[in-house]
Write a sequence for this structure.
């Protein structure tokens, strides 16, 4: 981003200078950052709003990074966290030590997860939950004597995190660049289940058959005795809020069961109410995965935490009497007491305030308004998503669905127009994604719809003026 909102006030300027010198930002371009630097110095948060050093207020429709589920700046959370720090600041959960927050949270997660999932390993976030799942899968398959079962199948454009193995399992082209290596020998990617990008004219039912057959054929091609697991986000997040054709998860899950392949549902985004349920796998998609990874909404972004949850069946194998093998996986901060207290408080707030009801009301309202009112706008190819997990895909040609060249940076152009108008939406290539807090009101949903509409129209005018689009 070249133009910036950073104030000329000395403190903002100083912060910007320190940052430029010393802070390597995620997903930034170090060369242009040297000249452009920071765009925003954020200073405050409250509910669904962020404020910058200029005093500008933004409605954060991104929800931080799909994570600020209960909203920002809650005193009650601050008190719970502070009390835990005074009571028991840190303890390891290695080997045979436990404490109230970790034990209670594990039991609570087992209660709200699908009924076959009753075991939890705590991690530091989503990527480490995926890493831990990968290692549990090896442990499980080796424990069963199935040492050949090491291959993983996942989907193009999926995002599973940023550790080496999570990034390798993920299928985003933008992560698999020549500038980084990733593991390819045992990781295979099948199609992203995005019906909008299916051959034009193909029915959704035929597309679904194609996707399910593709998975089964890939398992047969590699060999059923060699495929360990299939990784899938119930609704793809960073890949563009891709809601698969109806029946996709149930049918791919059945294919996995048929071939003794573990189903890993990556619910780092979709859990904790984002689409109106604790977890989407069973409640929305009617299947019981073997492993669920989660993070983000588990603490609503107040404190880092992730969890890798797995089935009774897996536990039976790894804990078989006389087995004597060690689950040699653990983080210093696995089950950190302060993180676990934040998660328990977060769950308590979601339950007490009946936030799923709000997601079902306001989320459905937002989804409907966006899906009905944006289709005729210039630039908009498709609006997709469920409730408070939404995405707008921009195209250069609505009939052919042709994309803009990457250099146009269409998602960034729209989001820049939106932030000028006090709204944060996240640009990812040719997309804008949104995942606002679950406390969003109808009035705030109206603001998102109306501001985004104005921003899209302004971007269109700008593209005409700049000659990127012909009149
Ligand atoms: C589906 C999914 N899995 C895993 C991750 C990685 O989580 P984290 O950034 O907490 O490591 C993300 C992050 O966006 C995600 O969306």
């Amino acid at each position: 981003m070249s133009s910036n909102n950073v104030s000329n006030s000395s403190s903002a300027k100083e912060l910007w200078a320190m940052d430029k010198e010393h802070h390597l930002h995620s997903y930034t371009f170090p060369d242009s950052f040297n000249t452009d630097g920071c765009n925003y110095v954020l200073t405050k948060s409250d509910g669904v709003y962020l404020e910058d050093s200029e005093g500008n207020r933004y409605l954060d429709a991104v929800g931080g990074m799909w994570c600020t589920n209960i909203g920002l700046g809650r005193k009650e959370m601050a008190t719970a966290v502070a009390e835990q720090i005074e009571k028991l600041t840190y303890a390891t959960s290695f080997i045979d030590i436990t404490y109230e927050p970790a034990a209670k949270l594990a039991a609570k997660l087992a209660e709200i997860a699908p009924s076959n999932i009753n075991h939890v390993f705590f991690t530091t976030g989503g990527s480490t939950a995926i890493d831990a799942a990968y290692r549990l899968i090896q442990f499980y398959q080796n424990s069963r004597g199935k040492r050949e079962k090491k291959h993983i199948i996942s989907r193009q454009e999926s995002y599973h995190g940023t550790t080496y193995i999570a990034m390798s399992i993920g299928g985003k082209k933008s992560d698999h660049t020549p500038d980084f290596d990733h593991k390819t020998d045992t990781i295979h990617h099948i199609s992203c289940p995005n019906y909008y990008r299916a051959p034009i004219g193909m029915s959704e039912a035929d597309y679904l058959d194609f996707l399910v057959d593709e998975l089964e054929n890939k398992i047969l091609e590699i060999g059923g005795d060699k495929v360990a697991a299939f990784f899938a986000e119930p609704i793809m997040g960073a890949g563009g809020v891709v809601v698969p054709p109806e029946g996709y998860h149930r049918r791919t899950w059945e294919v996995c069961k048929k071939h003794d392949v573990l189903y890993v549902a990556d619910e780092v985004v979709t859990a904790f109410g984002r689409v109106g349920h604790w977890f989407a796998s069973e409640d929305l998609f009617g299947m019981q995965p073997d492993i669920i990874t989660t993070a983000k909404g588990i603490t609503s972004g107040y404190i880092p935490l992730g969890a890798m949850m797995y089935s009774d069946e897996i536990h039976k194998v790894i804990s078989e009497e006389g087995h004597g093998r060690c689950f040699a996986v653990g983080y210093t901060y696995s089950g950190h007491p302060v993180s676990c207290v934040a998660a328990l408080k977060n769950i308590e707030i979601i339950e007490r305030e009946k936030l799923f009801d709000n997601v079902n009301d306001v989320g459905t309202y937002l989804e409907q308004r966006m899906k009905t009112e944006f289709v005729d706008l210039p630039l908009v190819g498709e609006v997709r998503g469920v409730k408070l997990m939404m995405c707008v895909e921009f195209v250069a040609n609505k009939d052919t669905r042709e994309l803009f060249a990457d250099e146009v940076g269409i998602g960034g152009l729209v989001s820049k127009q939106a932030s000028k108008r006090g709204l944060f939406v996240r640009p990812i290539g040719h997309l804008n994604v949104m995942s606002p807090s679950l406390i969003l009101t109808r009035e705030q949903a109206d603001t998102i719809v109306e501001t985004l509409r104005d921003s899209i129209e302004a971007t269109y005018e700008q593209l005409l003026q700049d000659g990127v689009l012909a009149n």
